[in-house]
């Protein structure tokens, strides 16, 4: 019996020391060595992700190119992931512009938009001002009388007001690789323009150069309705084209938008016709 006690005594002492190791001061409050992990594993795959570069493209190998503008409506069910409060696309873009990770370019007024959409750089405050309507602040003197006509200041930005994005892309056939693919060039949030109390429609607030934005998008996870472990980044869903959109313009000699020559439901019919024309080009390449 004494031998058994001598054998068990070191084991009990060791267990006692091990049990007290996290809290040697006998305090009622446990000592945290590290910040608590929100989950059961450390999700850092996207945080360290790198952009997969495009395949090299030479002008001599471009057998066909078509400039296409299309719009993504976030109110569509398939596009709701872009408006998720946990990973809203516009919030991500504005945070990156403010921190200097992305550059905002002014939308050209007049001229040829295909040549100067990435020419004029906007400061972060200028880019933010594109979203907020001006508000007149009236000042008063000690007697309560208004001073002057008031001053205009930018109103508060509501990210939920951005419900559309425009995409500028090129559809290219590379004869060297025998590949027909679309390549996104720029992304622009759409804002409603009003003047003299009249609604002048929507136009891009500013443009983001997509090859530059990819380095930020690749580290931002997309929220899914059905699975929290998708592992998809914003770069993935743009490159894999996981979005619903409709065409609003293609390159043409008269530089016309679809709404310049079609109205109502005819605009959608024309957009679908152009979409089919782009797809048929590839089919016709391999048909005999």
Key terms:
288 residues; alpha+beta; 8-stranded antiparallel beta sheet; two-stranded antiparallel sheet; globular
What does this structure look like?
The protein is α+β, with helices and mostly antiparallel strands. The protein has one domain. The protein is 27% helix and 27% strand. The protein has eight helices and ten strands. The strands form two sheets. Strands 1, 2, 3, 6, 7, 8, 9 and 10 form an eight-stranded antiparallel beta sheet that branches. It has a two-stranded antiparallel sheet with strand order 4-5. Strand 4 and strand 5 form a beta hairpin. The longest helix has 21 residues, at 265-285. It is globular, with a radius of gyration of 28 Å. The chain starts with a helix and ends with a helix. InterPro entries: Gliding_motility_assoc_GldN. Keywords: Signal. Pfam families: GldN (PF19841).
Total E-strand runs? 10
One letter per element, helices H and strands E, the order comes to HEHEHEHEEEEEEHHEHH
User: Helical residue percent?
Assistant: 25-40%
**Discrete helix count:** 8
What is the makeup of the main sheet? Answer: 8 strands, antiparallel
Radius of gyration: 28 Å
Strand content: 25-35%
Taking the alpha carbons of the first and last residues, their distance comes to 95 Å
- Unreliable residue runs: 17-24
How many discrete domains?
Answer: 1
The structural class is alpha+beta
The overall average pLDDT, rounded, is 82
Shape call: globular
């Amino acid at each position: 019996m004494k031998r058994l006690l001598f054998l068990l005594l070191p084991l009990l002492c060791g267990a006692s020391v091990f049990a007290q190791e996290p809290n040697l001061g006998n305090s009622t409050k446990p000592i945290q060595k590290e910040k608590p992990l929100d989950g059961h594993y450390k999700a850092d795959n996207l945080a360290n992700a790198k952009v997969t570069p495009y395949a090299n493209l030479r002008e001599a190998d471009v057998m066909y190119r078509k400039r296409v503008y299309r719009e993504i409506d976030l109110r569509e069910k398939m596009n709701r992931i872009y408006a998720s409060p946990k990973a809203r696309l516009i919030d991500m873009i504005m945070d990156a512009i403010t921190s200097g990770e992305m550059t905002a370019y002014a939308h050209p007024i007049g001229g040829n938009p295909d040549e100067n959409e990435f020419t004029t750089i906007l400061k972060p405050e200028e880019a933010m001002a594109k979203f907020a309507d001006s508000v007149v602040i009236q000042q008063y003197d000690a007697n309560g009388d208004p001073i002057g006509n008031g001053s205009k200041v930018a109103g508060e930005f509501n990210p939920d007001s951005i419900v559309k994005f425009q995409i500028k892309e090129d559809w290219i056939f590379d004869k060297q690789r025998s590949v027909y693919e679309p390549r996104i060039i720029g992304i622009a949030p759409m804002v409603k323009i009003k003047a003299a109390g009249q609604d002048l429609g929507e136009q891009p607030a500013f443009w983001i150069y997509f090859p530059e934005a990819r380095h930020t998008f690749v580290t931002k996870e997309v929220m899914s309705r059905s699975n929290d472990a998708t592992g998809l980044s914003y770069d993935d869903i743009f490159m894999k084209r996981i979005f619903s959109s409709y065409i609003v313009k293609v390159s043409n000699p008269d530089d016309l938008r679809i709404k310049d020559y079609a109205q109502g439901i005819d605009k959608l019919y024309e957009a679908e016709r152009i979409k089919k024309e782009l797809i048929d080009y590839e089919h016709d390449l391999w048909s005999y």
